[in-house]
Specification:
The protein has five helices and five strands, in the order E-H-E-H-E-H-E-H-E-H. The chain has about 140 residues and is of the alpha/beta class. It has one domain: Response regulator (Rossmann fold). Helix 3 links the parallel strand 3 and strand 4. Helix 2 runs parallel beside helix 3. The protein is globular, with a radius of gyration of 15 Å.
């Protein structure tokens, strides 16, 4: 793990994902982009703990479903939701699901960086991650 915390960007808008990834790299932060919630969930077991920047509306698994599956699998990582559709019910749902922040596209870099700072704080205070199968007893031969 190259930085204090990893950043995972999940958005079907490749221009936005690439722009965010570039910004984070210039700040010497590790960032990895995923084009869909499905791709992120598939890679999740092999990822280091990190902050998740998650688009609400995507084809396949939407952002809410991705966060729900993360929690069900024991990955209680900080989530920052992004949405281009600032509907109050969606924002309320994100907050109820435990999101660090729900930001409205287009947003200022400073707004996202402040949310990431809060996410990093949560991640550093969290107990060590429990990987599926970690700590399981070895079978006796």
């Amino acid at each position: 793990m190259g930085s204090i915390c990893e950043i995972y960007i999940i958005d079907d808008d490749s221009m936005l994902s690439n722009s965010l990834k570039f910004m984070f790299q210039t700040l010497k932060l590790e960032a990895r982009a995923f084009p869909s919630g499905d791709a992120f969930i598939q890679a999740l077991p092999s990822l280091e703990p990190g902050c998740v920047i998650l688009d609400v509306n995507m084809p396949g698994r939407d952002g809410f479903r991705v966060q729900k599956e993360m929690l069900e699998r024991g990955f209680d990582w900080p989530v920052i939701f992004m949405t281009g559709h600032p509907e109050v019910p969606k924002i309320v749902r994100a907050v109820k699901l435990g999101a660090v922040e729900c930001i409205i596209k287009p947003f200022q870099d400073e707004e996202l960086l402040a949310a990431l700072h809060e996410g990093f704080r949560h991640l550093r205070q969290a107990p060590p991650p429990k990987r599926p199968g970690a700590g399981a007893a070895l079978p006796l031969l």
